[in-house]
Amino acid sequence: MTGPVVRLRGLSKLYGDFTALDRVDLDVADGEILALLGPNGAGKTTLISIVAGLTRASAGEATVLGRDVVRDYRFTRRAVGLVPQEVNFDPFFTVEEALHFQAGYFGVRLSPARLEEILEALDLAGKRHANTRSLSGGMKRRLLIGKALVHEPRVLFLDEPTAGVDVRLRQQLWAYVRRLRARGTTIVLTTHYLEEAEELADRVAVIDRGRILLVEGKDRLMERQGGKTLRISLGAPIAVLPDGLARLGARLEEDGSAIDVDAPPGGSFGPALAAVATAGLPVGDVETRRARLEDVFVSILGSEGGAAP
Length: 309
Ligand SMILES: Nc1ncnc2c1ncn2[C@@H]1O[C@H](COP(=O)(O)OP(=O)(O)OP(=O)(O)O)[C@@H](O)[C@H]1O
Ligand SMILES: [Mg+2]
What we know:
By secondary structure, the chain is of the alpha/beta class. It has 11 helices and 14 strands. The chain has 2 domains: 6-222, P-loop containing nucleotide triphosphate hydrolases (Rossmann fold, 3-Layer(aba) Sandwich); 227-290, Alpha-Beta Plaits, CATH 3.30.70.
């Protein structure tokens, strides 16, 4: 596949006179993991629902593998797997039955090997014969992920896949998401755990009030928006920042006990450390802190006058 796997152009969604999506343009490349980030009500679920064929756009175009999601919905629905944000399924099935039933819905047979793989990856093997009604919240969410995978979709939409999932299992799910990607699945993920996006995403798209504010490679974004900060804790407090450090834009903690210096993107802390040595400062401890996606995200939304994440 040469073009983007998912292509959105001028996509808008109105509910009455409320604009939930506002002329969204977005490409998702083959085999990537794209994290779609934005505050509550930004339009993430709406966007995903349109691509998955659950909601109709008011204007614009959405294609999956080059096919229009409205005109060719049979094809595109088969190509897409969706883990919905809301947990809702038929409570009269066991876990295994729910997975088989879902496969049937897509007209495929769930092979025993595939069933085992899904149960294993989602840590549901012990609950295979349990009624879905009896599952815990986190288990229900895992079953939703399993159901989205039974027909081996080319594109997987994960709408807050790990909300309410415990820490250990979250790590396990991340590993599984990476495995799916390695096999060629393209993944679009929404999450409020920025750590999750930082961990998984190749690219990040930020959406706020129905508009895409930015789409960029995660590494580039973090590099551009925030480099590293060096924190030098002093053995004894000082009253005034030495000139050599002030010139580098260093900041002295109010009580004089520590100095922070930012490295320019791609730059080094060589000059700052040299200035510390020249000034003969009593260094207690030195640590560096890398900008986190969280800092970047807050600064993007802040600069757009947007809501808090
Ligand atoms: N069926 C609907 N009728 C009216 N308004 C709707 C409907 N569905 C969504 N909206 C509105 O559209 C906006 C976007 O909602 P959406 O669910 O896409 O947000 P989201 O980014 O997924 O938020 P969250 O992070 O809370 O899941 C919200 O203001 C929401 O109230
Ligand atoms: Mg949502």
